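Lab meeting notes turned into a lecture example. A postdoc, R.K., suggested we walk through two folding results consecutively so the class can see how the record format repeats. The first protein's sequence and structure tokens come next.
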Amino acid sequence: MTTPSPNSHRLGWIGTGRMGAALVTRLLRRGVDVTVYNRTPAKTESLAKLGAHVVSRPVDLADRDIVITTVSDSKDFVEVVAGPHGLLSDGTRAPSLLIDASTVSMEVSAEMRATALRLGTALLAAPVSGNPNVARAGRLALAVSGPRDAYETALPYLQMLGARVTYVGEGEAARLVKICHNLVLGVVTQILAETTVLAERGGIARADYLDFINGSVMGSTFSQYKTPAFVNLDFTPTFTGHLLRKDFELGLDAAGQLKVPVPVSSLVHEIIVKLIDAGLGDGDFAALLELEARAANLNLAPDARPVSDGLSPENSDDGAA
């Protein structure tokens, strides 16, 4: 199949929160025709200044060629797709391709896939790995599943959104990939929190411990970009504890259905529930560090030294592909 020109389709976008706005900005700065909808209209204002058209209902995007959704959960995905004013509610017109970049359950995704197919709309599941800062730096990774021909059509646009796009198969395969990914996300953050508190209790500065980890074989893009939050104790949310709990529960449900024991993930889920019960769920999930420190009776203080998040500027949101 011949890959289409990156600007040969009219795009719609539903959901312009922190992540959605960062991704729409990348498309607009590459000359893509994008019309957007968000439940809170004020969150579309910055995009309108960049050239996005704004509509007041998801169904108003039904005449677009491709529509991408980034919403909080399964309930919201159903609402914006099949609700009373949802994208597919017109019944006579619909985009040829719907791409969902949210983290929703496999069951809901399959239900919406069947609903879309009845109107001739193909659905790609394309959940992303990374937070809005990673998106702005062009470092997102996307797992994609669904019809292969739809994937080939979408690929030029998906490549504008991040650094790596991986096709993982038909149906809901990408949903399972993302759910597994977010189990790793929580488990790694918890062990980083535990060992950082252990090191600090032993007299080692958090910045020094994390500098060592980031430079070792155990370091990663993730440990690097969470370092400022751990060092400066800045838990401004990029991904909240509530959202992490939701994704862990999706993961535990999938594990139960597939009869796979996940003892470590189950334990971390319990800790995430404690995080929320302690009133830390509205902040970034890096607040697992604060929860661990409280359990150790360790009073944390911000370290004001500048530390890098490791996000390279070379593919940042400057209009470069």
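The second example is placed directly after the first for contrast:
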Amino acid sequence: MTGFLKGTATAMITPFLPDGGVDFDAFEKMIEYQIEGGTDALVILGTTGEPATMTEEEKDAVMRFSVEKIAKRAKVIFGSGSNCTAHAIKESKKAEAYGADGLLVVTPYYNKCTQNGIYEYYKAICESVSIPVICYNVPPRTGVNILPATMERLCEIPNIAGVKEACGNMEQICETMRRVRGKCEVYSGDDNLNLPMLAIGATALISVVSNLAPKKVKEFYLAVESGDLKKANELQDRLLPLIDACFTEVNPIPAKAGMNMLGFRAGTPRSPLTELEDAHKEIMKAALIANGMKVVQ
């Protein structure tokens, strides 16, 4: 299928309280910040949201809260992937029941299944729900890679909306795009590749840096869409140091630190992730200031 997602989507962080619960007051402020910034979709409980260290009760509460507070002002996409197909189906059905517009489903991690296993995993999930499903290809985290031929096969499934590509290999991504163009969509999953991804036909950006700078990321996207590549390059050049700052340590460690610096009470990542190291905090502060953002701590 085509046409599900266009524009900018933010891979949202989940703010945690010192006692370990979810800080819903802080999360509401982040949701409003995104909507005010023109973000078209909020991706919740994806990698950036740390669902691996959240309880089922916490994830359920986040889904209910998100749908209520976003209130159709942007698309709501919930992460529902797993390394167990049965669990992924359960989470996908639950997300649909809570009111998700679509699902972001990461490839099965750790198990290292075959390409046929990847296909059967997504087929089973898609058959269990009626809403659009986005495949999430991020081999550095999962240990498996959706190859172009497999994505071509997957796009024949009626509710496969596209693939969030974070493999980092533009040669592979170009081949995937060639095979699926007009059948399903490709979305940029690496902020540093947003410009070339849009140039080859990606329809949306699923961005980490837009947690911090939603307006700037949307402005960049619109510049590309309007054909103003001079402006797009200028904006991307300015954003790149902030993008780099977001990946000095594993995501979402730096993004959470940056949101705290902007006064959003993002809290700290859950163990085994740790707080951003001091040297990297200075890099983040400098990048925020260089982008004209007010650092409050």
